[in-house]
Amino acid sequence: MHYPDVYIGAVKPYENDRPSAIGKRQVDGILQLTALGLEGDEQAESSYHGGPDRALCHFPREHYAWLRQHFPEQEERFHPPAFGENLSTLGLTEANVFIGDIFRWGDALIQVTQPRSPCYKLNTFLHCPQMSPVLQDTGKCGWLYRVIATGSVSGDKPFELMTRNSDVSVAEAISIAFNMPFDEEQYRRLMNAAGLSASWSKTMQMRLINRKIEDFGRRLFGSAGK
């Protein structure tokens, strides 16, 4: 059984950056999970965060020990929910969670839709200019869910895998999208993974149309990456 720590946050202003809801706090007790996420949780930029396919963000707690080891100067920062996640668990990682997996959590059902795409706001928030590319390169990205049945949830309710719908792990999806050369066969394989988000399906389709991989610089580094 995998019991999650649960976090929510409101949009706040940040000096020298746009408002964000990356800063979250742990909540206990029963919450309502709607089609757009946990009650009380917010997203600042709806083009890139939130929405039906990105209602919840899950980041494995295991990654924090690795980060503390590799970035000792920022060690005190690497504790949940430093990455703005809604859910943190032990035992669920990109290697054993698959695109399309449906979990029961309390009264709700949630489905894995895509890996998280690390962005430059993590660099700013964690005062580590290379954080986003490090997460992308190592596959320590976490993943996102859609809510397919709303209901009451809490950290006292375990995650239970109900249905596995594809053979593409989150780790493989990260590798295909971020870390391997152009590969039409793998893009089609990822697009065929049941439950894949609309935005990731579009990205893979555009690669097939344009015959090239899009530039990651702006997402990973903001304006500096242009």
From TrEMBL:
Query: Can you tell me where the transmembrane regions are?
Result: none
Residues of the signal peptide: none
Q: Which InterPro entries does the entry link to?
A: Benzoxazolinone_Detox_Enz, MoCF_Sase_C, Pyrv_Knase-like_insert_dom_sf, Tri_helical_YiiM-like
All residue ranges annotated as the MOSC domain in the record: 25-162
GO MF terms listed in the record are: catalytic activity; molybdenum ion binding; pyridoxal phosphate binding
The source's superkingdom equals Bacteria
Gene3D superfamilies hit by this protein: PK beta-barrel domain-like
Q: Which PANTHER family match?
A: PROTEIN YIIM
* Descriptive protein name: MOSC domain-containing protein
